[in-house]
Design goal:
about 325 residues, alpha+beta, Rossmann fold, nine-stranded mixed sheet, five-stranded mixed beta barrel, 6 helices, 20 strands, globular
Length: about 325
Amino acid sequence: MRFRAGGLTIAAPRPIPGFKSCGAARADITVATTATPPWVNSSFHLCHRSDNTDALGTPNLMVVRASEGFRLAYADDTIFWIAKDGRRIWMTWATTFEDACTYLTGPVLAFVLRLHGALALHASAVQIGNHALALVGPHGAGKSTTAAALGRRGCPVIADDVLRLTRGREGWLAQADGSVLRLWPRASQLLFGDADRLPRMTASWDKRALRLGQYGIRSASRPVTLSGLVFLDGRGAGPDPVVSVDAAAALLRLVANSAATHLLDTSQRAAEFPALGTLARSVPSAVAFVPHDTLDTTRLCDQLIEWASAGARRTDT
């Protein structure tokens, strides 16, 4: 089976929840399920140990590296082995395949994109007119909720949580790979007036799955030229929902929100700075202030559409 994510084609022996199927013949990445690599017993050294732990004190994530690649071990005994070039992934799990895929389609995909040399942001994105608007921010900032709200306003969803950007003839392109938005029950309540309207992503996880194509929310079908970066700020609403920022401020926020940075070595981290600097200088940026308790979706969406449309007009001229 073939799937599309982050502008790459992924081959797997079974459907992967969260990835969009495609008909491509050649695969950039191969996923092996319930399997381990030939180098499983290699000598590993520690790359990253999460500060967050489960009730037993086990780190939520521990990453080790061998000469052949990486092993990512999660506290629930889900394990991924990733070849050093990012072209092979092996995965095993102790819970369910659906639970394991929440890692595969999120942090594992982000790391694999970085191993492929891609610029990836911790961001969702939507299409407004003929241009893309990236919604950038850390976990819990409201990226998926804002993307869903804009989706209900007729803006096709490009990506959720992990956004790959590439350089095209007309500027930066947001790679389309969206098939589902992951929302907490509070977001479902906000958008639909019912916290239980949407099904759970998995039986053990309270996040809900908003499948693109449902409730009038469409998915973008091709890469879209990026015309705006909006950094979601959860410190409280300001006098205006959306406030433009300069390139220097945008760069600082991009550095903080590029994907999987905690797994990059020094040379990889240094190599991404020129690209982030070019992105910050070439694409208009703003901060959107999100209240702590509720999201004023109508006002915020109005402002985001207006701000993005103005940026697109400047780009086109």
